[in-house]
Amino acid sequence: MDDFLEKFFPAVYVRKHHVKENNYCKYNDKGLQLFTSSLYLAAIVASFFASKCCTKFGRRPTMGVASMFFLAGVVFNAAAQNLAMLIIGRLLLGLGVGFANQIRGMLNILFQLMITIGILVAQILNYFMSSHHPWGWRLSLGGAGVPALILCFGSLLIPETPTSLIERGHLEKGKLVLQKIRGSDAVEAELGELVAVSEAAKGMESPFKGLKRRESFPPLVVTVLIQVFQQFGGMNAIMFYAPVLFQTMGFKSDASLLSNVITGSVNCVATFVSSVLVDRAGRRALLLEASAQMFLCQVIMGSIMAVHLKDHNTLPEGMAMGVVVLICGFVAGFAWSWGPMGWLIPSEIFPVQTRNAGYFFGVSTNMICTFIIAQTYLSMLCSMRAGVFFFFASWIAVMGLFVAFLLPETKGVPIEEVKERVWRKHWFWKRYMTQDDEHPDKEVQL
């Protein structure tokens, strides 16, 4: 929004309107990139403390802390008078993300679907607020306070989970909550199972220490690589900076925001498609198909931009609309594959003992890579021009090879059987399983 740029990034505003700056460099500004990326830097830091908070105090307090950070961040952003206030607000929002990630639960595709719905709502809000001068950007940033308030009141109203209460020694409270959830007093059998699982967990070695065992190497490597590929395929570069990209091609501000709403709608619908197909087609099939689709979209987009978009012209209208269609194709491929699979597969490939620790590494890796992409993309676009699309295409090619040769299928495999049915039977990863039986305490240096 011009009002936003003029107040906080005047150099970008001048390049956009008054200087014959080349198309690819109008928005190249480290402060603008920091405004986007600082949220994820704070989320990385917060996740270290949030995990312990969730374990010690439970889900409800963690949820409440997340909402407080969100609300504080909204206040700083909506009332911002300078760039420092904007960055502080983004950092506070990032702390909220770090704490909120602890309560995602195990319905990972549903979690991803809710994210895409939230993105779409934000894009629609931005589109309508762009015509309100000069306060539209404040209304957009302030709108984040609505879900923050819902989260805040929700943390006061919902009960704590029985598992969390039992793990923290509140057996009677856990029993009462379980009775309320089931609508029956006859919960002794289920309560006994939860107590047994909790006691067994206390007797286990630290999950982080368990990750050093040889048999933990395959799921840990796969989890980390999935998060790297999920970000370096270019999806968040497009979702974060789509309006910038559309304006680079010659769209006006309102048209850019409207095109962003279109891509957000595709993102939302395609994520829903994934929830329908994932247990029918399998994880590998969706990822392989999407890798090919995403690769082609990036290569064709890069070719069109390289040939038809020079430093100081605009794309012909037909070409520009073609790029929008290609972006939608790219977004759809990601949304029914790498988006939800990036969270689903890591939740399926670790044994129970190391599942939480392994998932923590996955989330942390994702946040680090998201920060890198958010902080560097505009500079890459300026220096590489259309070559940035081929950069992402090369990563997607590697992603496809990774799935084809190193990613096992976990469709229909219970967690307790994943070691025997997945890792021991994989042509490459099985070598890390056989020796471990002979030397159960042998550790691998990661």
UniProtKB/TrEMBL annotation:
Organism phylogeny: Eukaryota, Viridiplantae, Streptophyta, Embryophyta, Tracheophyta
CDD domains named in the record: MFS_STP (cd17361)
Domain Major facilitator superfamily (MFS) profile: 1-411
Highest rank taxon of the organism: Eukaryota
Naturally occurring in which organism (per UniProt): Acorus calamus
Localization, UniProt: Membrane
Name of protein: Sugar transport protein 6
GO terms for MF: monosaccharide transmembrane transporter activity; symporter activity
Protein family: Belongs to the major facilitator superfamily. Sugar transporter (TC 2.A.1.1) family.
Membrane topology: Multi-pass membrane protein
Keyword vocabulary terms for this entry: Membrane, Sugar transport, Symport, Transmembrane, Transmembrane helix, Transport
